[in-house]
Amino acid sequence: MPKPAYRRVLIKLSGEALLGSQPYGVDPDACYKIAFSIKELCQIGIQVGVVIGGGNIFRGIKATAAGMDRTPADHIGMLATLINGISLQQAFERVECESRIMTAIACHVMAEPYSWKAALNYLDKGHVLIFAGGTGNPYFTTDSAAALRALEIRAEVLMKATKVDGIYNKDPLKYPDAKKFERISYTEVLERKLQVMDATAIALCRENEIPIRVFNLFSDQALMKAVLNQSVGTLVEGL
Question: Is the pTM of this model over 0.90?
């Protein structure tokens, strides 16, 4: 097998990744498949952190549009990420891969409070870290949380695992003539307002020169190809 391109990675998983074939909630089989794919990375010596979203359960933006105040709506979304984190951690138990949940919101019974030093210690021990609760603050998305945690744990790449096989100049589901970017700069993503991650996350990665790999989580061996820096998805970097 080729040598991995990275020693430590941060994977951003959307809550929808845990849906599987279900319209709502968490599919244990989808969690199992994701956990197994991540375990394969650990087996070749890669240290892995995971930031999980909560959109399969609750979306704060939609609740705000329906009349809920933004702060409590975002708090509910943070709790949804904790539900997903526990579900994913149980999948790691099934595949016999050591993992820990760390949360930015206080919930000591269910998960450890986030600690930068403890996180680095767990990673050095080979444990997969699941980061729940976003940044712990309203008005910040889990994309921003992923960029922040990637910086804090000194990840060499932020991998955004989605249902789309990269970044396009327009929505490929709506426009058959949409063109995919193999590589693109942070600045171009921001200037074109491409909806791959929120602007705060992109800007944070640009400022700190963390590349972003956007790819389809469900394509064959996608995670492994991404850590081997093979041609999969789209790479965002400072061109």
Answer: yes
In a domain, 110, yes or no: yes
The CATH number covering residue 136 comes to 3.40.1160.10
Number of structural domains (the chain) is 1
pLDDT single digits (tens) 43-82: 999 999 999 999 999 877 777 777 889 999 999 999 999 9
Q: Which residue range(s) make up the domain with 71? A: 8-237
Q: Is residue 102 part of a domain?
A: yes
DSSP per-residue codes, the chain: -PPPS-SEEEEEE-GGGG-TT-SSS--HHHHHHHHHHHHHHHHTT-EEEEEE--TTT--HHHHHHTT--HHHHHHHHHHHHHHHHHHHHHHHHHTT--EEEEESS--TTTSEEP-HHHHHHHHHTT-EEEEESTTSSTT--HHHHHHHHHHHTT-SEEEEEESSSSEESS-TTT-TT--EESEEEHHHHHHHT-TTS-HHHHHHHHHHT--EEEEETTSTTHHHHHHTT-S-SEEEE--
